[in-house]
């Protein structure tokens, strides 16, 4: 292949440093500084992609983020990154990329057979067919799903992999006075001005180099400003950094590509960095993007945006072709033509729809040489895999009429300029609606407020050199027969836009959705305005009346990994109790309870979980067991009004609770449903410690704070979460008092000194502890709290003291067994849908005082007889019950409607049967009924059960009071 | 969104927990004196305006105080931050 | 109007696609209709369609302030399912599922309902029991449900992280095989075309600015295109319910408007063949026919009428995607957008007569409006035509909140941003 590299020039490349890379396994060479696009262009490669629908061969069209065609998959360490624009891949030695959406190869893609579908595959055709037969085996959705199977495989672009991405992504929070977006000349000047006043400035440029689209002659001016900025401590300069999202309060998101362009990332460097920037002021200097013109054959490889051609030449020293033609509706392309001629290209023709041009453009045309075809348009192109010639005809753009025959001009590259669109995307994201400018034939940002400003080409200030006029002729499409593309990647043609109009999809959003215009990976950067213009034309309305879609984040696609940086994988939070390591050292299987890790059971060698928890539960009922209850929510409540406060938030009374006594409490939500339960310890006249369930700790804390701040700001109460400050161990079983007696100093723990619900303060192994006699298991039991740092020390002391009594630690499973046997509720029953009455806790509803929820708890829906209420269930067949089973009246063949569900189950060593708790319709009147627990979705079991009182063991509570 | 906390300064949205309509919360009926319908309205009914909305936010990841914030539900612009108790 | 078929596509292709007619007419509003439906979204259009096709009421206008399908029907994550727990919800959503299964034929419009299944993953034994409970409830009410274990997950969802190394390892999933995804815009367009073919006037760019009343009785609406009378006026304007009802003097409702963001990645070849939800947080993800991953998470969680959310939720949702699919870290987010949800006080919808005579309300769809589109329209049409609810929507009353008959799938109570 011929090299298109010029003998000299190229501001970004190092001609002494040759770089080898492969495309689809084939070896190529480029120069250090090249992008994949420039390197392939230099190698004479023309087909760089295949389109989405028709699989048409496509070449390079743009220079940067607006490139719709040249997409490749980059594979690094076995992890695939599909759909990367060749214009943004910086080559390095060993880079390996793959072309996409073609079979078997990019040059010969059999899927191009889709083109034979021609007009039958027009916009929206799929809504009208593939529905299949109404009857028979392919009725319903079956026929569609068969078709869909094939369609899905044909659709999509690059192929993703299944190997986890091991790259590291980093997140950084930044704050600045001025965020300048865009490192072109306008942005740099703005940054410089702000920096001189001492303000903290961050400048983000999405390309690897400063200067943006400024032409080579500005090189030294740019270098000077950058050097000055680099020397200032109040300026942060970021290249390869795309600001992609502008959120409320001037909060912006940007992705910095830290090491994508490197063969080996520096040690410790992330792949990409997610910047979250809070800026006092945002200065947009995002430039403008050149628009193509829609004409037949405009997608042939070799047809390129004019300014892209200039930039490949100036930046990389690569000519986009040897025999160029230019097609324009404005002056800017004339400078390009002259520049490329200067760089060594042969300019065959400049075709301009305008019948006349200004003197400045004329001078450049003379310099470029070649035929100047004013009042002409390109009406066709030819060349199998790349442009060989264009057809040019005389054209009156005001009457849109052609005259005379078409003339063929041989050319291998057609540079097109259809005018310029300022990059208004970010301003639009922030809620500012763009405004149409008739002179520029483009949308401009609206008038900014104090929080932002806009500069340079982004503001419509298209400062072309050589006195060129920025105003294009209002020509977007050359209406000549043939396939003329508007959205290149998605193969949306001008006819598709007109079809959408014909079928009534006329609003800009309908156009987009019906044709998929602007939905490709380039997000319509080149196609939006031409598409709108064609629709406006069909409607006979001016372009702004058709509207523009609101741009949404991101401006360019951002990797999921960068946005989630430092927030996934092993970086999700864990909460561990002070005794966590001890549990692990003693055979505990851990169980995730929210963010907490709790011991499930302490399995001895050879034991199953069930054997372990049954043994542990037996130990508690017969001797003594120790369980870690540090995860319970704990809230310290202090102040002169603390008792009154508790009276208001709990359903039962606390004002008369004596110091050093505890009481079980229930809270309702404002709507009258149960919220949480726990115990409340009165530690002093004006100080209480309350516990909550593990699951609801945060919710209860916020609820109490809301009540104090919002409802009762005059109450003199302070609440503090102390969940992490206290370690807690519950010791339970008939021998538990003996164990405490053996190790607690400084206090008597006998029945008189420490009666049921009593509290004492003492020490265990030299550590101060607070002991409350209360019971979740139904046995004689105590909760022992100490400072969290002493948790393991006290736990070990309790275990040592318990050794003579054969104490054993027990886990959540045994704890569950014990509480099920007693009918004590947890979050499984207080599930946000149950009332106090449903749970037989109505005895706790004080009638002597109002409390949160009291006004709402007696409504008809909450007292309906058919509500599901708490019962116990016992397996009658000896089969193991399954959590989540439903209670039904009928046998397996005719279960009938669900009457309720099991909330918990366990094997009860006391009852010697599988038992459970259930919420059952009108449960109170079903005691003694024989029903079934059915679990069709999981175990397939259908087990005969008896409904019993939820108090299955020691209903009178003699053990815990003993 | 950035919320100016009177205690902690301007802080990210992610530090705050939303707690609902401030005017509604401020109108919690007197539990002793009110009828059922005013309670029903308090618990379930909202004005839900498009425009300025007084609402309670808790600075959950900061000072944990509840703030009364007037925020426009169409633009998300915050125009006022006070303490919920201050009004009474 | 011509039927759509492969044959009609070929015939039209031969004449350069010049003979296609608008999918629905662009009529001028008449002075009066039997029924006016406010809202040309999915629910409004399907209501009009079923009023005409099932209940013989064809003198109907659908008034849309913008363009057809501009609300949440055009900005959701396209999931269709009927995997509910509570008895009040299941029959309704299952009815919807049955309508979905024949919808393309019914409408002569390919809505691309693809029954690729939904798998709700669970990560702890307690979650497994919860999922069993929901699956059992589904089966007992005649809905398909099954458990999926890691070996099958590995085969069917190869990119899923089953290594056990994740923070909340996947223990399994509850699958509804008949669930899936549909092409959201096509549903709006198909109903619009179907209703139009049965005589319904679909009037775009027609904003309701007030209600016409005789005493309490609603007798019509004022619009940006003049006054239009109707015997019955029905509102299906989820996201704007409070605003529209305020025009009728109803100033307080059990609804808050919240913004929900949705996300799509760039198109890639097939890599996810079913809908997956994450139990360690809140994420639902699938891959569209075009190849984009389409997903969403929680609402932003503050009242909003801006179709625009904020960054914290974006970061949350992405982190959950990668928690499940670490292989997707290099895929790129292409677009995000926001929709305004009617969040009700119990997370369940309202399809009811009232709150004024002559007025009917369809609202409160929370996250779940898309999948409900067929049954919502069907039940609303029934309620409008017969002046009483069908048994499927009988629980979805407006007075259930005050009476205490809430349908609270999440058990969160009257905190709409937590449903």
TrEMBL record, chain A:
One of its GO terms (cellular component) is cytosol. Belongs to the GcvT family. GO terms for biological process: tetrahydrofolate metabolic process. It comes from the Bacteria. Residues 870-954 form the Aminomethyltransferase C-terminal domain. This is FAD-binding protein. Residues 177-432 form the FAD/NAD(P)-binding domain. It holds the Pfam family GCV_T_C. GO terms for molecular function: sarcosine oxidase activity. Residues 579-849 form the GCVT N-terminal domain. Residues 482-566 form the SoxA A3 domain. Keywords: Oxidoreductase.
Automatic annotation (TrEMBL), chain B:
One of its GO terms (biological process) is tetrahydrofolate metabolic process. It comes from the Bacteria. One of its GO terms (molecular function) is sarcosine oxidase activity. Gene3D superfamilies: Folate-binding superfamily. Coiled coil: none annotated. This is Sarcosine oxidase subunit delta. It comes from Oceaniradius stylonematis.
From TrEMBL, chain C:
PROSITE patterns: RHODANESE_3. InterPro entries: FAD-dep_OxRdtase (IPR006076), FAD/NAD-bd_sf (IPR036188), Rhodanese-like_dom (IPR001763), SoxB (IPR006278). The keyword Cytoplasm applies. It is an enzyme of class 1 (oxidoreductase). It is found in: Cytoplasm. Keywords: Cytoplasm, FAD, Flavoprotein, FMN, Nucleotide-binding, Oxidoreductase. GO terms for biological process: tetrahydrofolate metabolic process. Belongs to the SoxB family. Residues 35-79 form the Rhodanese domain. It comes from Oceaniradius stylonematis. Its main location: cytoplasm. It catalyses: sarcosine + (6S)-5,6,7,8-tetrahydrofolate + O2 = (6R)-5,10-methylene-5,6,7,8-tetrahydrofolate + glycine + H2O2; sarcosine + O2 + H2O = formaldehyde + glycine + H2O2. One of its GO terms (cellular component) is cytoplasm. The keyword Cytoplasm applies. It comes from the Bacteria. This is Sarcosine oxidase subunit beta. Its cofactor is FMN; FAD. Its EC number is 1.5.3.24. GO terms for molecular function: nucleotide binding; sarcosine oxidase activity.
């Amino acid at each position: 292949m011929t090299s298109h590299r010029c003998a000299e020039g190229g501001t970004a490349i190092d001609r002494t440093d040759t770089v080898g890379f492969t495309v689809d396994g084939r070896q190529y060479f480029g120069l250090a500084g090249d992008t994949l696009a420039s390197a392939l262009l230099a190698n004479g490669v023309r087909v760089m992609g295949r389109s989405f629908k028709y699989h048409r061969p496509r070449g390079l069209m743009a220079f940067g983020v607006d490139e719709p065609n040249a997409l490749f998959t980059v594979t690094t360490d076995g992890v695939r990154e599909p759909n990367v624009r060749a214009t943004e891949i910086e080559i390095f030695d060993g880079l390996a990329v793959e072309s996409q959406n073609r079979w078997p190869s990019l040059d010969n893609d059999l899927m191009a057979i889709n083109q034979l579908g021609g007009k039958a595959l027009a916009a929206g055709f799929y809504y009208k067919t593939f529905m299949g037969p109404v009857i028979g085996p392919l009725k319903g959705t079956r026929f569609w799903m068969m078709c869909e199977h094939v369609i899905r495989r044909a659709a999509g672009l690059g192929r993703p992999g299944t190997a986890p991405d091991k790259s590291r992504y980093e997140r950084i929070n930044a704050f600045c006075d001025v965020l300048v977006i865009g490192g072109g000349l306008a942005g740099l000047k703005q940054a410089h001005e702000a920096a001189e006043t001492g303000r903290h400035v961050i400048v983000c440029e999405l390309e690897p180099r400063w200067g943006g689209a400024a032409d080579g002659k500005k090189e030294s001016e740019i270098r000077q400003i950058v050097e000055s900025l680099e020397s200032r401590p109040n300026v942060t300069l970021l290249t390869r950094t795309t600001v992609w999202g502008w959120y409320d309060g001037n909060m912006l998101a940007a992705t910095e590509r830290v090491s994508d362009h490197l063969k080996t990332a520096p040690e410790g460097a992330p792949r990409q960095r997610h910047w979250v920037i809070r800026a006092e002021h945002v200065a947009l200097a995002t430039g403008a993007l050149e628009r193509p013109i829609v004409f037949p054959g405009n997608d042939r490889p070799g047809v390129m945006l004019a300014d892209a051609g200039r930039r490949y030449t100036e930046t990389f020293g690569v000519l986009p072709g040897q025999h160029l033609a230019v097609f324009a509706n404005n002056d800017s392309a004339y400078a390009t033509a002259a520049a490329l001629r200067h760089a060594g290209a042969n300019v065959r023709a400049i075709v301009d729809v305008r019948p006349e041009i200004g003197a400045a453009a004329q001078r450049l045309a003379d310099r470029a040489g070649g035929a100047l075809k004013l009042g002409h348009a390109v009406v066709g192109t030819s060349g199998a895999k790349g442009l060989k010639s264009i057809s040019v005809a005389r054209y009156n753009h005001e009457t849109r009429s052609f005259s005379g025959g078409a003339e063929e001009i041989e050319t291998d590259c057609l540079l097109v300029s259809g005018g310029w669109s300022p990059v208004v995307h970010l301003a639009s994201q922030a809620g500012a609606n763009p405004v149409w400018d008739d002179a520029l034939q483009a949308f401009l940002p609206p008038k900014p407020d104090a929080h932002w400003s806009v500069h340079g080409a982004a503001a419509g200030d298209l400062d072309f050199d050589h006195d060129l006029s920025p105003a294009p002729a209002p020509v977007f499409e050359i209406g000549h027969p043939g396939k003329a593309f508007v959205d290149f990647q998605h193969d949306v043609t001008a006819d598709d836009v007109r079809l959408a109009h014909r079928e009534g999809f006329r609003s800009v959003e309908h156009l987009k959705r019906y044709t998929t215009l602007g939905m490709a990976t380039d997000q319509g950067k080149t196609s939006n305005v031409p598409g709108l213009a064609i629709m406006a034309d069909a409607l006979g309305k001016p372009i702004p009346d058709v509207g523009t879609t609101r741009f949404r984040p991101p401006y360019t696609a951002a990797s999921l990994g960068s946005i989630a940086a430092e927030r996934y994988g092993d970086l999700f939070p864990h909460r561990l109790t002070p005794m966590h390591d001890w549990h692990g050292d003693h055979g505990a299987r851990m169980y995730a309870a929210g963010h907490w890790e709790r011991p499930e059971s302490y399995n001895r060698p050879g034991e199953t979980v069930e054997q372990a928890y049954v043994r542990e539960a037996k130990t508690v009922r017969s001797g003594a067991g120790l369980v870690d209850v540090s995860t319970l929510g704990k809230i310290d409540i202090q102040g002169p009004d603390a008792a009154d406060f508790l009276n208001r938030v709990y359903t039962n009374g606390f004002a008369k609770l004596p110091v050093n006594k505890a009481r079980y409490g229930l809270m309702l939500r404002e709507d009258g449903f149960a919220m949480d339960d726990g115990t409340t310890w009165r530690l002093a006249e004006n100080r209480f410690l309350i516990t909550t369930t593990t699951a609801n700790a945060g919710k209860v804390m916020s609820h109490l704070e809301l009540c104090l701040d919002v409802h009762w700001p005059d109450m003199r109460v302070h609440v503090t979460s102390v969940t992490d400050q206290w370690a807690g161990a519950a010791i339970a079983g008939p021998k538990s008092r003996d164990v405490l007696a053996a190790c607690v100093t400084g206090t008597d723990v006998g029945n008189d000194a420490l009666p049921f619900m009593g509290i004492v303060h003492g020490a265990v192994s030299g550590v101060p502890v607070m002991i409350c006699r209360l019971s979740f298991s139904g046995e004689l039991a105590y909760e022992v709290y100490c400072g969290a740092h002493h948790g393991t020390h006290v736990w070990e002391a309790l275990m040592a003291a318990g050794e003579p009594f054969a104490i054993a630690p027990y886990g959540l499973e045994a704890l569950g067994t014990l509480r099920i046997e007693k009918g004590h509720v947890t979050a499984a029953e207080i599930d946000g849908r149950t009332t106090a009455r449903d749970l037989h806790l109505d005895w706790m509803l004080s009638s002597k005082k109002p409390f949160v929820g009291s006004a709402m708890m007696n409504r008809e829906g909450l007292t309906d007889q058919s509500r599901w209420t708490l019962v116990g269930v016992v397996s009658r067949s000896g089969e193991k019950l399954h959590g989540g089973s439903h209670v039904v009246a009928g046998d397996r063949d005719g279960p009938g409607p669900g009457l309720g569900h099991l909330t918990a189950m366990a094997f009860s060593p006391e009852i010697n049967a599988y038992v459970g708790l259930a919420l059952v319709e009108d449960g109170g009147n079903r005691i003694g009924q024989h029903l079934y627990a059915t679990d069709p979705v999981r175990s397939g079991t259908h087990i005969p059960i008896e409904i019993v009182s939820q108090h299955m063991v020691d209903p009178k509570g003699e053990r815990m009071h003993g | 969104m950035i919320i100016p906390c009177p205690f902690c300064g301007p802080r990210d949205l992610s530090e705050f927990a939303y707690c609902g309509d401030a005017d509604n919360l401020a109108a919690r009926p007197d539990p002793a004196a009110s009828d059922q319908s005013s309670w029903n309205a308090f618990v379930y009914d909202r004005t839900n305006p498009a425009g300025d909305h007084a609402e309670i936010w808790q600075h959950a990841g900061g000072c944990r105080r509840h703030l009364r914030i007037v925020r426009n539900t169409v633009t998300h612009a915050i125009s006022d931050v006070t303490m919920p108790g201050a009004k009474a | 109007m011509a039927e759509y078929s492969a044959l009609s596509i070929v015939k039209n292709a031969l004449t350069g696609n010049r003979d296609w007619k608008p999918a629905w007419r662009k009529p001028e509003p008449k002075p009066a209709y039997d029924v006016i439906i406010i809202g040309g979204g999915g629910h409004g259009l399907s209501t009009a369609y079923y009023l005409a096709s099932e209940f013989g009421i064809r003198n109907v206008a659908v008034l849309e302030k913008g363009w057809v399908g501009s609300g949440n029907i055009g900005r959701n994550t396209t999931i269709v399912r009927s995997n509910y727990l509570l008895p009040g919800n299941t029959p309704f959503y299952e009815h919807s599922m049955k309508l979905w299964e024949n919808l393309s034929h019914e409408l002569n419009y390919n809505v691309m309902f693809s029954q690729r299944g939904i798998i709700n993953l669970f990560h702890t034994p307690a979650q497994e029991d919860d999922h069993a409970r929901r699956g059992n409830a589904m089966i007992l009410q005649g809905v398909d449900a099954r458990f999926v274990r890691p070996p099958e997950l590995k085969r069917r969802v190869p990119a899923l992280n089953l290594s056990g190394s994740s923070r909340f390892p996947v223990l399994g999933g509850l699958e509804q095989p008949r669930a899936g995804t549909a092409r959201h815009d096509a549903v709006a367009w198909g109903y619009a075309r179907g209703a139009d073919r049965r005589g319904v006037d679909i009037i775009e760019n027609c904003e309701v600015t007030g209600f016409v009343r005789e005493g309490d009785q609603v007798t019509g609406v004022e619009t940006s295109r003049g006054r239009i009378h109707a015997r019955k006026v029905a509102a299906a304007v989820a996201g704007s319910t409070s605003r529209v009802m305020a025009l009728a003097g109803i100033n307080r409702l059990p609804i808050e408007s919240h913004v929900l963001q949705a996300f799509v990645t760039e198109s890639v070849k097939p890599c996810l063949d079913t809908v997956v939800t994450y139990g360690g947080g809140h994420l639902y993800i699938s891959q569209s026919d075009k190849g984009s991953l389409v997903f969403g998470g929680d609402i932003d969680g503050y009242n909003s009428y801006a179709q625009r959310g904020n960054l914290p939720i974006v970061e949350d949702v992405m982190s959950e995607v990668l928690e499940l699919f670490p292989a997707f870290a290099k895929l790129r987010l292409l677009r995000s957008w926001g929709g305004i949800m009617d969040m009700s006080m119990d997370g369940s919808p309202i399809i009811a007569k009232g709150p004024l005579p002559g007025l009917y309300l369809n609202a409160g769809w929370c996250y779940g409006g898309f999948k409900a589109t067929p049954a919502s329209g069907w039940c609303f049409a029934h309620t409008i035509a017969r002046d009483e609810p069908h048994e499927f929507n009988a629980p979805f009353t407006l007075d259930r909140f005050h009476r205490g008959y809430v349908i609270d799938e999440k058990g969160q109570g009257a905190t709409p941003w937590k449903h």
